[in-house]
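pinned: reference chain
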Amino acid sequence: MFTAMDIETAPNADMIPHLPEPDAKTGNIKDPDKIAAKIEEAKAAQVERMALDPMFGRIISVSFVCAEHRETRLVADMTDAAERDLLHWSLGVMALPEIRLVTWNGNGFDLPFLFKRCLCLGINPGHLGVAPLPAWTKRYDCERHIDLMKVFAGWGGGDYAKLDTVAGVVLGEKKDEIDVTKFAEMITTEEGREKIKTYNERDTALTFSLFERMQGVLFV
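pinned: its structure tokens
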């Protein structure tokens, strides 16, 4: 059963004290106040990037979409326990013997992020019947997981294509507009949670629609 998957992430505020010292570009600046301002600027940039790093970010939402069903779940709150619950549910879906995952840039982001969050939170996917990360991200191997972006790019090493761009051209559809930098704040309100869920599910549905369009054309 081909099933599209997509995750959404946010900074883990608990990890801010563990960020490495930022590389502040002070150059020949001598003024202590200006140097301090540069350091603060570099720290702020670090915090903004936390959501993209599994050591310093969290998975806050996971969506699965197939031809017959779609389901999206969010963390109950911004805690390790809530994220563990979300990861256990996600791995339960991945462990289903009939599942063949479909992603957009899953090799480069979604799957490595998910498995590394499992590592950080002490979850062994193998104990839940899920093969380790390399089994899902083998180059040219689409038996367990199809990364549509890699297929679209001809498996080029550095080639990157945005889901929004390709869906816009191929399907005539676009992603929802949302400020992903506000996810940590949005997840705390019902309105915000609904917006994140809708955004996550929309991305996953677009991925599945692209899979349906690409199958038989770019892959068997």
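why pinned: Helices lie at 32-49, 80-94, 106-120, 133-136, 148-152, 163-170, 183-186, 190-214. The longest strand covers residues 2-11.
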